[in-house]
């Protein structure tokens, strides 16, 4: 245990989950929904996506305090056709609505080969990969889309217009340890990485963002006043528009830059999502699909390496290796981050998050 604000301390998975659940329940979330949310945040922190883990708790609770997120909302599902459903999240946690949506999409895919669910009036659902993993655990392929608040310009523009909205998809692998899980923001880096650098007093690479004058910056505070840069120029810009078409326009939620930001405590976010589950054994047996995935995995990871590369990874593999390590060692947080999260435990009158 250290008193140095930036030194890293470790939190056991069970203590992480207990802290998140207790704080959520003290703020009006049911135990059942708190279990879903705490599991999603723990998965993010275990996978090394610590931009979207328990560090988000203070801002989520601030939204509840400002009455712009309903902690007790129950999402309502409407079956539209045998393979399509819609969920009205009723301004509750995005995790809860998206979990319900993926559960229904999987059930439809089991019966009909494919299931798609559109979600409206939702909130931030954190790391998209947790829904892809939910599908993989049920032997399903998936597409997981969301829109988000304006943070990056469209190609050729200079003001925040589109969200840094992640595109995620996945498929079961040849073995359970080797699924394909792609989860990527359409920007050079997720904006959460800029917030993380700000929290930790670190600089950011110059190609991530522009300041409000349109100049490249390595200062996270200036980057947050400016815009995130799309990856791959017009292609990253088009992907963020694609997320808005499928998640915002199609669902009936906010779109075209009108989604409320996670750090804007003045209005509901009104986020939209779009989730699809697909049965991988529609056109061949599951065994054949898995052995073809294993062949693909081997082809990728044994590809001839560039001189400076030690190892080639399959999409999602680095995160699964992080998870293996963190399940043993615990989740690393700086003391500042732990103190910041524990302020919520104090306010809620529950036990603080334990760390070593
Ligand atoms: N809910 C929201 O509104 C929101 C918004 C933005 C980002 N996010 C989340 O932020 C997270 C981070 O996004 P990101 O774009 O910064 O991710 P990233 O750049 O760290 O990773 C993107 C993808 O590339 C793969 N990858 C990374 N390095 C690799 C390597 N060396 N070899 C092979 N594959 C590799 C990863 O497995 C991942 O699938 C995601 O989980 C995303 O869902 C959420």
Give the topology.
Elements: E1 8-11, H1 13-26, H2 31-46, H3 57-65, E2 76-81, E3 84-88, H4 94-112, E4 114-122, H5 129-137, E5 141-146, E6 150-152, E7 162-163, E8 167-171, E9 180-184, H6 191-200, E10 209-210, H7 220-225, E11 227-228, H8 234-249, E12 271-278, H9 286-301, H10 317-329, E13 331-334, H11 335-348
Parallel strand pairs: 3-4
Antiparallel strand pairs: 1-13, 2-3, 4-12, 5-8, 5-12, 6-7, 8-9, 10-11
Bound molecules: nicotinamide-adenine-dinucleotide (NAD).
InterPro entries: Mal/L-sulf/L-lact_DH-like_ah (IPR043144), Mal/L-sulf/L-lact_DH-like_NADP (IPR043143), Mal/L-sulfo/L-lacto_DH-like_sf (IPR036111), Malate/L-lactate_DH-like (IPR003767)
Organism: Exophiala spinifera
Pfam family, one: Ldh_2
How helical, in percent, are the residues? Answer: 25-40%
As a percent range, the share of strand residues is 15-25%
Unreliable stretches (pLDDT < 50, length at least 5) are none
Please count the beta strands (DSSP E, at least 2 residues each): 13
Oligomer: single chain
SSE run? EHHHEEHEHEEEEEHEHEHEHHEH
Strand order of the largest sheet: 2-3-4-12-5-8-9
Distinct compounds present = nicotinamide-adenine-dinucleotide
Overall mean pLDDT score?
96
InterPro entries: Mal/L-sulf/L-lact_DH-like_ah, Mal/L-sulf/L-lact_DH-like_NADP, Mal/L-sulfo/L-lacto_DH-like_sf, Malate/L-lactate_DH-like
Organism: Exophiala spinifera
GO molecular function: oxidoreductase activity
Keywords: Oxidoreductase
